[in-house]
Protein: 2-keto-3-deoxy-D-arabino-heptulosonate-7-phosphate synthase I beta
Organism: Frigoriglobus tundricola
Amino acid sequence: MILVIRPDATLEQIDHVIETVRELGFTPHVSRGESRTIVGVIGDEAKPQVENFSAIPGVEQVHRILKPFKLASREFHKPDSAVYVGKVKIGAGSLAMIAGPCAVENYEVMDTVAKYVKAGGANILRGGAFKPRTSPYAFQGMGEDGLKILKDVGQKYDMPVVTEVMDPRQVDLVCRYTDMLQIGARNMQNFDLLKECGKANKPVLLKRGMSATVKDLLMSAEYILAEGNKDVVLVERGVRSFEDSTRNMLDMSAVPNVKGQSHLPIIVDPSHATGRPDLIPAMCRASVAAGADGVHVEVHNCPEKAMSDGPQALLPHQFLDLMGDLRRLATAMGCEFWAPPEK
Amino acid sequence: MILVIRPDATLEQIDHVIETVRELGFTPHVSRGESRTIVGVIGDEAKPQVENFSAIPGVEQVHRILKPFKLASREFHKPDSAVYVGKVKIGAGSLAMIAGPCAVENYEVMDTVAKYVKAGGANILRGGAFKPRTSPYAFQGMGEDGLKILKDVGQKYDMPVVTEVMDPRQVDLVCRYTDMLQIGARNMQNFDLLKECGKANKPVLLKRGMSATVKDLLMSAEYILAEGNKDVVLVERGVRSFEDSTRNMLDMSAVPNVKGQSHLPIIVDPSHATGRPDLIPAMCRASVAAGADGVHVEVHNCPEKAMSDGPQALLPHQFLDLMGDLRRLATAMGCEFWAPPEK
Amino acid sequence: MILVIRPDATLEQIDHVIETVRELGFTPHVSRGESRTIVGVIGDEAKPQVENFSAIPGVEQVHRILKPFKLASREFHKPDSAVYVGKVKIGAGSLAMIAGPCAVENYEVMDTVAKYVKAGGANILRGGAFKPRTSPYAFQGMGEDGLKILKDVGQKYDMPVVTEVMDPRQVDLVCRYTDMLQIGARNMQNFDLLKECGKANKPVLLKRGMSATVKDLLMSAEYILAEGNKDVVLVERGVRSFEDSTRNMLDMSAVPNVKGQSHLPIIVDPSHATGRPDLIPAMCRASVAAGADGVHVEVHNCPEKAMSDGPQALLPHQFLDLMGDLRRLATAMGCEFWAPPEK
Amino acid sequence: MILVIRPDATLEQIDHVIETVRELGFTPHVSRGESRTIVGVIGDEAKPQVENFSAIPGVEQVHRILKPFKLASREFHKPDSAVYVGKVKIGAGSLAMIAGPCAVENYEVMDTVAKYVKAGGANILRGGAFKPRTSPYAFQGMGEDGLKILKDVGQKYDMPVVTEVMDPRQVDLVCRYTDMLQIGARNMQNFDLLKECGKANKPVLLKRGMSATVKDLLMSAEYILAEGNKDVVLVERGVRSFEDSTRNMLDMSAVPNVKGQSHLPIIVDPSHATGRPDLIPAMCRASVAAGADGVHVEVHNCPEKAMSDGPQALLPHQFLDLMGDLRRLATAMGCEFWAPPEK
């Protein structure tokens, strides 16, 4: 950490800065430039006190030079991590295709959609039982009944399932029915929920918040890892921007950006990122080419009757076409979508 | 609601649109323009199904024309609402000054800061016992011990107290010690927490999320109101932007924007919005002049030793100076900071 | 266009709205819903007067339903357009690889970089002679001397060249030396420059502004097309966002988004979008997979000595590796980088 | 400037970094921390070469510690600068009220609006003769005929006038008719235009670009100052954001933010910032309370017939009411709107 001293700081102030650095257990290293004095602060930047350096009178700027996350960092774990969801491997060359309807609505829809996505090559089934809705008057999900349906259909088609958990009080219940816990964008900094999922023994699918930087996303992953759960898969799903023709702005560069800093797998969710079925196939293709460890897509056999987010779902035949393209690109990239061993 | 039909839609598709509108209990009203056919949808836009209109084949655009919130709306309740926190009235011409340290650290600091802010004219005391921190390694708050200190100091200085609640499981506990529940920016769309606070019989201070629109903020207020709790005070505290010299971007126009659409009081928190003590006084003054129902400011007697967000706190003497300016501006605006009746 | 009337509008106001619509040459079409009256406005939305409808007393909302651009629209010209730069075809399955240093610095660097990028398969050479720099104290470009070097080197390697034009007064001069005019992000809404380039008989490379929506970009293209120049290639080069680890945020979805609305080719510039060489290859790959008509990359043989934007340039060997990947992906996508016919 | 070395940098790389720093005329100052080596670079950060430090192999991060602008900085000129437009003083306690229609449309409208705003206390008259319009099909302004009308009406009411200049070729013409040159938001980084206005002997009203940081704005002012023109007034007019209920997001904190770093006056334009007449009065009041040196407001006697931006104009009587409020707040702030000396 580096402290830049104000040009009008008094000698007493500078002495007080140096003394404070020492008091907090760091070693100060002073150097005087033409127009500014600089104090290098040698020691562990993760100490909680460092955030207050900028409040010491006479300090003009504070520059951190170390990353604030550890367990999530590439420096902590050099090779790419793979996360297993049931038998499905995500990361290190093995791609996930997580597909299904936005919400679990009833057995029939779930069954129909699962049949189609399984046939297309999806390897993990999704469906929401607890739905975070902007309006209190919108469909809030089927709750435990939805979890049961999701589990049953997943077993029927031999696919592990993932579903969102919104409340720390739901974690135990959801763990009983699902193979992976999803933390939604709105809860990326719901720290109590992160901690609770960090204590669960299920892998976690952590979505980037709508105004979260890549660093914020990795810090939220760190919350889960710090509780002992090593199985975190990150999801880029778009952030808020001024562009008003898409629901969010998909930050595709987050894929290589995360991979440079972290060993954790990262997948892309173009359904929520764009909100537009006409853009989803191109963004899935781009994700694979960018090096993502998988894709997350909503599929519905009758979007106009869906109980949640129908307009952003692909139709089953669109999904099948898409998978053909994605397999071709995966091959060109030297990786492949995970598939069960042929018998 | 208005549906714009694609120029290449078939007659069958248009018939299907009209039929679907009827099926869902709405009345369709068709008009043909030079280049587009339009279907007016007459009925209650709050019905959950309306979101799927854009998924009906042949529909190009959907324009909502009604607001998605009701209880929070100015149309539902024409006059300005006032919310009481203990004896303190917020709204309808009576201004709140919520001040205190970011976190409750110990009795001494809380007592010292409370003495100063009370003397300056603050009417509600704040201090966090549960702290939402980006890093799992940062100080997470004193928990119940902090709540006790906050309550004791509030009673000593005859000030109601407000503190953040982060987890639905904490609501009961926090209610025992505090006069107002704060929901932080990161939890603005933590819907289970909103519902739980909506069931509590304490007023709620709801902060705008970092990527929330004004409409999103009002929808989150609607969650609380819909559970029966009428006492919601909104807080503008800045949103994420590309400007990198301030912590967030204070959206000052949210004050009149909210007031035009909603009867709820709204205050401004320049401490979190700017993160810079040098900008806080000017932004407090602007808030009062913009018509806000109060201000929320962090104050600390020794920011460099604060356990959380020290660098954004005002010093006690800065707070005193500020209050002088704010009182003068409040008078010019025809309103005043709530103060206990003189004995 | 649809006008939504305020619920408290008087009958006189509604009559005045209808009369005004007629006066301006449109046909009004009134329908009354449960809570709002709506006036459909039938006629040409491109008439300048329409922007004032929202200023008529009693009007609450105005919803446009037609696109504000014409010549750039897919409806105006259904098939993909191809643009020729010298012999190089951009669009309709033929991909551009525009490469070179940020600025023309001297003959030697230009020659060295051109040799490498030509060998790698670049088909258009770039280099700036007039540089838009944030600081007045930074290198502003070599001007006409740079144009001469660029032209000479382009001829030596049989590559058409593109360079930026910043000032309407420079258009004639730049046209004498270059095969394509580039309009930079900062000038995307420099309307006099757009008009001047619209009168030139050279193709135009139009970069998206840092806060431009996709619609804004297409409107700026419309300015050029409206002057008679049909050869416009759009460039996605990132927009401003809160993410602070990349220079801008690459909006990859702009590629299919533009292609859905417009017949014009669009390429991607990951150098300016990310500002980070470690992210450029992945973003080039993603661009090809997303369906872009080409890529724009800065290459320098000694980035640390570059006179402009060195830190975002690829090294020659990185460029060679990248082209191998891109050719493989292009094949998987059923398109190819334009290359001169083998002799 | 501070260079942070990569943890895996070789000794040769570190030596090369140090050598390069020396070669460029700076003094290196090396210090080794627990996990990173740091090289302080002592010398003038404004040298163009510094931007390339991050391209030297082995360099992980570059932290600038000095501001990149000089003439615009508070360090260069400690007291607040005042700028004179005709007799009107802007800055140092004297407030501007710049008012008028968006565009000059004809003599009658200009005369009517000028009469009203003069009566209300406006001290500078505005009106556009060259209009930057998103659409090539929208009204582009009256050109020189508009300039003549503006000048005539300004003289009739004894008000200096300001109008926008969009093209470097127009500067001489515009200077003949106007007392102040306005550079619009879209041209804030039209560097050739900045230079041309820097050579003119008229004060310049420089609007913040829609995606410009405060630093970017000050760098653009620096372009004008560096050409010898000392009379620059900055304008905060809102930036692009995800909030879709206002045209832009007014960054009110830019006022004290600029004042802390620069001696130049800054005013606020809530008309363009919000695009909503219902929000303009509150934002004008907030601007005065925030310490702005004035306000810029569009006024039109018949917004529904305005040829440009009618929907964002105040009506004359709204303007009169507003000025009453603003004078009261200015008094509370210890400053006043400039007014001609009473005879």
In short: The domain at 2-63 of chain C is CATH 3.30.70.1140 (Alpha-Beta Plaits). The interface with chain B takes residues 2, 4, 7, 29, 31, 33-36, 38, 40, 42-44, 61, 63, 65-66, 75, 240-242, 244 of chain C (CB under 8 Å).
